[in-house]
Amino acid sequence: MGHNNAGDTLREWRESALYWEKHSDIIRTMLGPLTQALIEEAGIGPGQSVLDVAGGAGEPSLTIARVVGLAGSVMCTDAVLEMVAAAENAAQQLGIKNIRFRQCTADSLPFENNSFDTVVSRLGAMFFPNPLLAIREMLRVIRPGGAISLTVWHKSEVNPFAYCVTDVMNRYIETPPADPDAPGAFRFAERGKLASVLTDAGARDVSEMLLKFRMEAPVSAEEFWNMRSETSETLRQKLGQLC
Ligand SMILES: C[S@@+](CC[C@H](N)C(=O)[O-])C[C@H]1O[C@@H](n2cnc3c(N)ncnc32)[C@H](O)[C@@H]1O
Q1: What percentage of the chain's residues is helix, strand, coil (to nearest 5)?
Q2: At 14, which CATH number?
Q3: How many domains is the chain built from?
Q4: What is the pLDDT, as a whole number, of residue 1?
Q5: Whether residue 183 has its Cβ less than 6 Å from ligand 1
Q6: CA angle, corner 98, sides to 97 and 104, nearest 5?
Q7: Residue 156 lies in a domain
Q8: What gap in Å lies between CA 195 and CA 135, rounded to an integer?
Q9: Mutational test site, ligand 1, from 62, 64, 83, max ligand atoms within 8 Å of CB
């Protein structure tokens, strides 16, 4: 997505929420390797209390809830109420009990200092209007020695999930280059950029890894297209212009 301001970003996510809920099973499968990497990097295990920031329609919260078990807990948060409601529905359907939900923005977390063992965010940090403030908040709410584990996209040109569709679309619709410092999917594509925000926020032992993974899900090309085009506000908008 290419965004201008915080209000636009949240409006776009609100409009996307029903599609993220509709396609949540495919997304869970496709992005499973990212969830596993977050869990492994943060050392998440049974009994831990984990905060998920920008948890969308419920991941990685739902998977982590199973990993931490009944002795642990997950707090799933998102700025968009419709996303939080989708996550709550999913937890109910899956019978997951050790999870709670809260609508809040990343830069103003409604939790006490030292409340969690770990904070995670899967594909969320690039959309925060003020990532430095958001990371400071994450550091405030984890206990001393706790971990923060984040995933963001690397460059779009090495990401066929992105370029297969956008390269074709750009042949027909003019797309101005994205402001590299505005909220958007590839804002932290440059290596070291997100890590330096963590360091500036006061995090210690910051490390970064490039995770190469295959996105796989048992879906037809048509199902893939429906999911891909519906969950992206930018694509929905561009496709609307082509009609
Ligand atoms: C790409 S989705 C990722 C959702 C989920 N973590 C996943 O991986 O399926 C980005 C999420 O960030 C949320 N978001 C955007 N800006 C936010 C903010 N300032 N604070 C918290 N969440 C935000 C959106 O509502 C959306 O659910």
Answers
A1: 50, 15, 40
A2: 3.40.50.150
A3: 1
A4: 42
A5: no
A6: 110
A7: yes
A8: 11
A9: 83
Residues 6+ apart with CB under 8 A from 91: 58, 61, 62, 65, 76, 99, 101
- Token pair of 184 as six digits: 């958007």
Distance 39 CA to ligand 1 centre (A): 18
pLDDT (0 to 100) of residue 2: 41
**Predicted confidence band of residue 4 (pLDDT cuts 50, 70, 90):** low
Q: Which atom belonging to ligand 1 lies closest to the Cα atom of 31?
A: 8
Say if CB 198 and CB 148 are below 8 A apart. Answer: yes
Residue 184 domain-assigned (yes or no)? yes
If pLDDT is split at 50, 70 and 90, which confidence band does 9 have?
A: confident
Per the model's pLDDT, the better-predicted residue between 166 and 106 turns out to be: 106
Ligand 1: centre distance to CA 124 (Å): 5
Domain residues for 206? 6-237
**Residue 128 in contact with ligand 1 by CB distance below 6 A:** yes
For residue 1, being part of any structural domain is answered with no
Residue 171 CA to its chain's centroid (Å): 28
The number of beta carbons lying within 10 Å of the beta carbon of residue 84 is: 22
Nearest CA to ligand 1 atom 13: 54
Whether the CB of 26 sits within 6 Å of ligand 1: no
Judge whether 243 lies within some domain. no
Query: Whole-angstrom Cα distance, residue 113 to residue 186?
Result: 31
